[in-house]
Amino acid sequence: MRDEDDTTGEARHQGAAAGRRVQLLDAAIRVLAAQGLRGLTHRAVQQEAGLPHGSVTYYFKTRDHLVLGVIERMSELEQAAASQVADELMRAMVARPFDPDYRHIADLTKAWWDGSRDRELARYEMQIAGRREALIGDAMRRSTAEFRKLTEFIALACGSTDAEADGEVLIAMIDGMLFHYLVNQPADPRYIEIGLRRAIESLRSVPAEAANRT
User: Fold this and answer.
1) Is residue 97 domain-shared with residue 195, that is, in the same domain?
2) I want to staple 192 with a disulfide (CB 3.0 to 4.6 A). Which of 91, 106, 151, 182 is the partner?
3) How many domains is the chain partitioned into structurally?
């Protein structure tokens, strides 16, 4: 019985530790969105999380450990939030005839973007920092690899003969839409629907011979 109690106690401790780590990383994302990378300190994170002194250092010994943990957490949250949109979009891409419900996809996308403002702002902050710091740049490239694969699949479904190039253009277009949405708050409520429609349809309108030119 003692062994079972010990095992249960250890499992509870591990669960509590994992929960505390996530709490700190979510607080770090909010700090990053509000104050930028310069403001991402152990002290600022523990204050945002409302935890005692030394809490952040216990889980993240150095700034690099904290930064890499934040990137990992953002990627985890982003993939979970994007999954519904991605599934809907992929089903629409492979269906024949090709007739995506852009309004529905736009509604799902809006809910995703509205619910992840801090995370997206933090991601842009990390992307800029990644141009100056190799550690951050490498981690950000790894975190976006799955999204690049998704846009390549969409490009293929649209008839692309160069999915890697077209997928990169597509992700840039959607990322640009997101940045404009967060920063400038477009007045037209159809902004996301129109943008997604034009981004997807632009791939279908590229003649095969043009795509094959070098």
Assistant:
1) yes
2) 106
3) 2
Token reading at 51:
């935890």
Compute the distance between CA of residue 97 and CA of residue 67 in angstroms, rounded to an integer: 45
For residue range 102-113, list pLDDT tens digits in order: 999 999 999 999
Q: What is the DSSP string of the chain?
A: -HHHHHHHHHHHHHHHHHHHHHHHHHHHHHHHHHH-GGG--HHHHHHHHT--TTHHHHH-SSHHHHHHHHHHHHHHHHHHHHHHHHHHHHHHHHSSS----HHHHHHHHHHHHHTTHHHHHHHHHHHHHHTT-HHHHHHHHHHTHHHHHHHHHHHHHTT-S-HHHHHHHHHHHHHHHHHHHHHH--S-TTHHHHHHHHHHHHHHTS-HHHHT--
Q: Is the overall model pTM greater than 0.85, yes or no?
A: no
Q: What is the CATH number of the domain that holds 50?
A: 1.10.10
Domain hosting 77: range is 71-211
Residues 30 and 127 in one domain: no
